[in-house]
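thought: fold this chain, then report.
action: predict
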Amino acid sequence: QVQPVESGGGLVQAGGSLRLSCVASVGTFSRYAVAWFRHLPGKEREFVAAISRSAFTYYADSVKGRFTISRDNAKITVYLQMNSLKPEDTANYYCAASGSGTSYYAGRSAGEYADWGQGTQVTVSS
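observation:
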């Protein structure tokens, strides 16, 4: 198991930026695809962005052009840089890891990820 740990959430005004970090518990993090999902109470968990083992990136249409996912395997960390934040980006953000799939693949479905962090809250005020 990877046991991801998220950090970097907080309160920010609309138009501002935050950078979320997802740190793994194992040095083999480079062998995992990693994704960010977000969740609001009463709603389904929503895909945000994902990065494959070989750093192919995938984004939800709602964040494309504003968010950037990246990874630093030496630091066993995946980042989510969030710019031009909107109130509708408010949610609890989760990092998830998957050890399956090809090197260029990172899924958009929560069911494809076995290891999940506890989440970090992002609140964007208008």
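thought: worth noting. The chain has a mean pLDDT of 94.
final: tokens above.
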